[in-house]
Fold:
Amino acid sequence: MKLTKNTTQGMIRCAAVALMAVAAWTGCAGEGGGSSDGEGLNGKTKIAQATLEYTEAEGGAVDDQLQIAEAEENIHVNGAVYASQDGIRKAIALTNMVKGLKHGLEMYHQDTIRREGDPEPVEDGFMGDAEEEPTTTEEAPQEVDATIRAAGIEEVRRTRDMVAEEAARAGSESLEQEVALLDQLIANMEEGGTAPVDYSGEEFGAADGFGGAAPGGGGRLGATPGGAQDIGYLRRLIEEGRVPAPDHFEAEGLFSEHDLPLEGASCDQMLCISAAHGFGPDFVDGGQTGFVQIGFSSGLDAATFRRKPLNLSVVIDRSGSMSGERIAAARAALERLVDQLSPEDRLSLVVFNNDAAVLMGPTMVTDPEGVKALVNGLEADGGTNIEAGLRQGFTFVDAHSDDPAMEHRVILITDAQPNVGETGESEFVNLTEEYAARGVGLTAMGVGVEFGYELALAIGRVRGANTLYLEDAEKLERVFDQDFDYLVTPLAYDLQLDFQPSQGFRIRDVHGVPDWDASAGTLSLKVPTVFVSRNKGAIVVELEVERGSGDPL
Structure:
């Protein structure tokens, strides 16, 4: 299937760059399309057209266009996905992994029929061992439908086999790692889920050592949308023997962990956005589906990339819920972070429990060892007043946010379980948005198996923000030694894609970004921020092929 492109170039608006591109995806069957046991793409099929607009973080004028990979051949045969590019095939496999896993977990967790008076599910979303007893006077037993549970397990097993097949075809080590994750999840489901390991008092990474330097070498960097940068929390839960709830699995985090490059013209700009597509059956219901991958890349060279100096405040949770491995992880994170700073960077340190306390006001980092010493004896106790700590950190950064030569950011290290001051998700989102409007971004880093995932994800989706989870010492080392400079470097803001499917197609779903609307038949999706990354990021749009009159294929 050949893809043709029609683009318009950028324009200046309100002293900022508004980058606009228009693309039409047009397909025609390649030689040998179709088969005796399936059906091919016949004639020319215009899939969709789209307009794209965003503001570059640096405000410089660039010649931008939505690139479409050419010479693509896609053939649909019943029961299989066909796309010539490995990047789009991998993206489709990950999309189907999201769909299959969510579907299987939904069935698995529907096996418990809750009655009035039954204990609520525990805070982290698991059905199971709650502390409270039913408040009704009569017995309120939990009824388990073994058939539904077995169907959920089978759906996850089917998902695992699909990922394994693509991993073997492509020789993909990263997909093989997902197969291992799904194997562990299936074992957890078959065993009914087990209690989490008690890590209280265990030193985080005590035996791991933290040697190593940031990787060298060149090559083009990638770009990923903000929000969740991993599925580390879900991985940790599965490793602990748990069966996560479906809403603990976010496509945006999974995509950000994988490199999803698309073929086509090389990127020589700060941010390049391209597209490719494939066809195949919907993983859940088997319907004919088109998968359009919107790919993100950058022309920045990894060997020469240097982030801007930072105006940074690190806010550390030292409340009682952070005892044991969590406070040890927070101390280790701060030490690793300081190793990435230079005398050009300004840093302040704030800790909080019942209230906020300042360990160091805004100071240029000329004595990194002295900064590390400030948290060496940090212990956990008291309540969790995230609001007080976060507000103090924002205030410190905001005081110097008029310096255009610096990147202005707060890093919050917490288990995200507020119980003092403001505790509602909306209040923290409002606070983060207030300072985002003043040019101050936020990176939320989670620790601990009982992590307030929903809160961290909500504030991490605000403009200028992102979030990740430090599940182990290896992850902590990778985040700070390899990825730190990228996590604090936005490339673009307020990206909006308006996507109009052609007749015969309709929007089925969007994966990799939470803010989208297709109620009027036209997809409008928004990405508040795009960050530099080692990986080429992606958003995947599913298009349902409408059968009946005017069959497009």
About this structure: Residues 1-113+154-193+243-305+494-548 form one domain.
